[in-house]
């Protein structure tokens, strides 16, 4: 059994029109036994940058704490937030540092960069970055998610929420509670759906309009 | 002040503090994760005026293609480029590290970097890790002594050749080179031969695929042709795509957080007058 299947996880991030969405499941298990159905895998680094960590839950939490610490230090020194590209380089360096004794974690980074341009990126457990223009996936359900995204992705969707419906149907190891956070320059919105939670951002209104996805 | 254990950025190099825990886990029968590999076709050849490097663009994670358009031709110096095969994190980290060392060396000596400098830096790093840093590289560039092409193996051995191929598709590409290479190729002939070799890797090797990247380096000039050929276009079953009905997913809760906060600016001159 692989170490990644110990806790189980499914993560996805997708780029839409001037927005991005990041989604995860919420199940925490010990192999086949479910321990929690509200486990958080997506963490906020700053208003416009989110990181999702799949894989071994303990490593995910430790890694998040280290990254948040480094970001706070950066904020103190530079008096501004880190750009997503810079943050991705930081995560890659921290993971590669442990090349021969790695963290069993695959991060998915999603953020709004300069001019609110959406940025998504994923890495393997030793920091090999994959920058994508459309979608990235990670976790035990990654094969199914690749298939879904490949067939259903369209560029410039207004809210890339369908990612949640996707994760919902997955393998036993990670079937609970997708939690998605679509993020738009002016407004991040968090939405919790049946078994799911998500953040959506809309440019002008607070009304949630899901028709255009 | 008490000596707290703070997570300050270390001086550099690898840190081995999780090794004992990972050993313990593999002792309990848990397999270690597979890393992303760039099971690849990378090639290089020397033509009349310089060096041409070529690479495919597929990155695999086990049996799945995780990146259909990754960049395998890495920048080392303005006149030196390096293609990498093997574990993706290793090739990226090693080429980035040697690229910065080359730049420092350049500032220190005041001269344009030479290909053999990059070669020595790479081979000594790889040798000192005894092949555990799994990066197989094709290094090419043009410096004052002329065009050079080298291959570097993960254990640190190197070869200097007029044409070279590495990666899982190297046999397919080498077959093309061995039959069609000759000295004194022109730029167009060279690019065509490189593309043919990479395509042969793309179509015959499972670890290589997607598009062809080409990099042409000549004296004083370089051209990085990203996605020079795209022989595997995306085909769709239906052009409309998949549509999602509204309300397909039940929303449990919604939380909206405005990002832009209103800041009131008090005019400084008004404040002073009061």
Short summary of the structure?
The complex is a heterodimer of chains A (213) and B (274). Helices cover 25% and strands 31% of the residues of chain A.
The CATH topology name of chain B reads: Glutamine Phosphoribosylpyrophosphate, subunit 1, domain 1
Molecular shape of chain B: globular
Main β-sheet of chain B, in a few words?
5 strands, antiparallel
Biggest interface, and residues per chain? Answer: A-B, 62 and 53 residues
Strand order of the largest sheet of chain B: 10-1-2-11-12
Helix content of chain A: 25-40%
CATH architecture of chain A: 4-Layer Sandwich
Spatial ordering of strands, largest sheet of chain A: 5-6-7-8-9
The pLDDT mean of chain A sits at 76
Low-confidence runs of at least 5 consecutive residues of chain A: 160-179, 191-213
Regions of chain B with pLDDT < 50 over 5+ consecutive residues? none
- Could you tell me the number of beta strands of chain A? 13
Q: Approximately how much helix is present in the residues of chain B? A: 25-40%
Superfamily at the CATH H level of chain A?
Aminohydrolase, N-terminal nucleophile (Ntn) domain
Approximate strand percentage of chain B: 25-35%
Q: Please trace the helix and strand order of chain B, writing H or E for each element.
A: HEEEEEEHHEEEEHHEEEH
Question: What structural class should be given to the helix and strand makeup of chain A?
Answer: alpha+beta
Query: What general outline of chain A do the C-alpha atoms trace?
Result: globular
How many separate helices of chain B? Answer: 6
The helix/strand series of chain A, from N terminus to C terminus, equals EEEEEEHHEEEEHHEEE
How many domain regions of chain B?
Answer: 1
